[in-house]
Amino acid sequence: MLQELRLKNFRGFEEHAVPLHPTTLVVGRNNAGKSSLDEALRLLSLVTTRFRALGYHEGPSWGGIPKRDYGVSPSLKGMEINFSTLFHRYGDPPAILEASFSNQTAVRIYIGSEERVHAVIFDAQGHPLRTKAAAIRLELPAVEILPQVGPLDTNETVLSAEYVRRAASSNLASKHFRNQLKVFSDRVAEFRGMVEETWPGLRILDLQAGRGYPGERLYLTVRDKDFAAEVAAMGHGLQMWLQTMWFLARVGHAACVILDEPDVYMHPDLQRRLVRYLRTRHQQSGDRDALDRNDGGSEARRHSRYGSQAKGVAVYQRSSVGSATDRERWKCSQHSARKALGRQKVCARRRKRYWAAFHCSSDAVSEQ
Questions:
Q1: Which of the two ends of the chain, N or C, has the fewest CB atoms closer than 10 A to its terminal CB?
Q2: β-bridge pairing 106-111 and 117-122
Q3: Residue 236 and residue 192 share a domain
């Protein structure tokens, strides 16, 4: 389980620690730093999912990194990181991300200018890994992040398996949805079961790829109750749900699952259903995280969407950056969530009384 993420000299954070729980819902106002946190987690995911396949070398000369800190340098291709604003208040590199896990392993990522990255992986004794053989033996929890979801392409054609695998966690995931089902065919059975369990009446019928040659069109037929059609003809909410379930099926039982704004196009009922399913799934799989990020222009409204219980909801509110310690800058507590829920309930009762009075007065006027 991912227990804490610490950011130093990263975007709007001079130094800040983010404590995480088995289920965490991150809520904050616009420009509060949620996207920066998401970007840091994506960098962490890049390291935890690739560190066993990369070569290890001593610490580089840039950034004041000790030579004894052996590590890896994963490619940032496709990450779309703006390095001109990466360092706190346009300061000097490096930015440092530190992640600690419940099994005492840890990751430290140094980020320099010109897309330079050096990631150090520590074992439970605090020693940095030096070889790929040691990396293979290490049980470092994987961090998986839901790619940005959107409406599916109506005309998706067969792509090479290597390209689909390489772009599986990129922003191209929505464009490659049918291709992923074709390439990761061993995960389709679990995907079907998850869909049928979570969406009553929904069935995945058939994936057609013609002869399977590159360039041939792909068709995925689904049925919702008595209506069957190609998946692109279905509603956007259903498409988002299928992509979210497919992501969860594809990553299997990863130690930490991060859903970045999965509520896009989703009705509040679907949002609540998703949170309930994630909690049940995590309880069954044991030591596992679920982190859900939402925009918070209206925090209380989003809390109410996820149910009446505020447990596991983290409300983040940042004051002026760089003027106080990270504990003072950010307030993260269940108490804040409960207060927000209380305000929402009071507002809802007031609106109900107002509309009741309004309709009564309107009826009286119409009778006259």
A1: C
A2: antiparallel
A3: yes
User: 3-class DSSP state for residue 78?
Assistant: coil
Condensed to tens digits (0 to 9), the pLDDT of residues 116-141 reads 999 999 999 999 999 999 999 999 99
Is the preceding peptide bond at 22 cis, omega within 30 degrees of 0?
A: no
3-state helix, strand, coil in the chain (%, to 5): 40, 25, 40
Distance between CA atoms of 294 and 317, rounded to whole angstroms? 13
Pairing of strands 23-28, 13-19: unpaired
Identify the CA nearest to 247 among candidates 143, 168, 154.
168
Phi, psi of 4 (to 5 degrees): -155, 145
**Residue 30, phi-psi category: left (phi > 0), alpha (psi -120 to 50), beta (remainder):** beta
Residues 71 and 88 in one domain: yes
Structure tokens at 297: 């222009």
pLDDT in tens, 253-307: 766 888 877 666 788 888 888 888 888 876 666 545 556 666 543 333 333 333 3
